[in-house]
Amino acid sequence: MPIFGMFIDPLYLIMLIPGLLLAGWASLKVKSTFAKYSHVRSSRGLTGAETARQILRRNGIYDVHVEETQGMLSDHYDPRSKVVRLSPQVYREPSVASMAIAAHEVGHALQHARGYTPLALRSAAVPLAQLGSYAPWIIMIGGFLLHVLELVYLGVALFSVTVIFQLVTLPVEFNASSRAKIQLAEMGVVSGADARGVTKVLSAAAMTYVAAAVTAIMTLLYYLLRLGLIGNRDE
Question: What is the percent of the chain with per-residue pLDDT over 90, rounded to a whole number?
Fold first, then answer.
């Protein structure tokens, strides 16, 4: 486990360095890219809300609503309520960044309407992924304290659900961005410069999901190594 007694296992830190560095870079990249293109007005002057509604209408989707929500970069699509929720800046501002983010979230609504299988799998896995975000640590610590190796194995198995969730998330997010770019191009609402800005915003956002997946995978590999389930057993 990462923590043995009063010290942190150096192997854990070594294995997580790539994911942590990538996560830090991705976070800075998405914030700086969003900040840059949030000050670039879209050529058609469409806000994020207007962009989202136009895409929904042109695809014949009338049961999905677009609402404003609070929080910086809190934009998301809720498949249960069929609501695209956009942060205030994205919802209200006619910028390239707002247009890109809004189109991406509507991309998830298009996935939902078209029965995109990875989205259905991710939605179904959400409860297990939420459980897997905290339960494994409790179970594994309990296993070590009680010297019950079976509990440790159970904790690792539960954590693997989080890894699977992160991996399923990747095609969902990349596909939503692809749909967003296609929709904006077909609507004719992006010029050459706008299209490049949209691509940069969506690419930066995608890297945050890649970083999360890398971190989860490396953490799982660490557990498997320390338990001797792969490689040489650690005596």
Answer: 64
* Per-residue pLDDT reduced to its tens digit, 28-47: 999 999 999 999 999 899 99
Model pTM score: 0.87
pLDDT at 226: 83
Task: Judge whether 93 counts as a catalytic residue.
Answer: no
Alpha carbon distance, N-terminus to C-terminus of the chain: 14
Instruction: Label the pairing between strands 83-86 and 65-68.
Output: parallel
List the structure tokens of 54: 């136009």
Q: What share of the chain is helix, strand, coil (3-state, %, to 5)?
A: 70, 5, 25
Around Cβ 40, how many Cβ atoms within 10 Å? 16
Among 26-40, 142-156, 210-224, the least confident range:
142-156
In whole angstroms, give the CA distance from residue 34 to residue 199: 11
Q: Show me where the domains of the chain are located.
A: 3-226
User: What are the DSSP E strand ranges found in 69-170?
Assistant: 76-78, 83-86
The catalytically annotated residue of 50, 68, 93, 105 is 105
| pLDDT score recorded for residue 92 | 96
* Nearest by Cα to 222 from 149, 148, 163: 163
What DSSP line would sit under 161-217, residue for residue?
Answer: HHHHHHHHHHHHHHHHHHHHHHHHHHHT---HHHHHHHHHHHHHHHHHHHHHHHHHH
User: What is the rounded CA–CA span in Å between residue 207 and residue 228?
Assistant: 31
CA separation, residue 33 to residues 18, 68, 174, 201, 211 (Å): 22, 22, 18, 6, 17
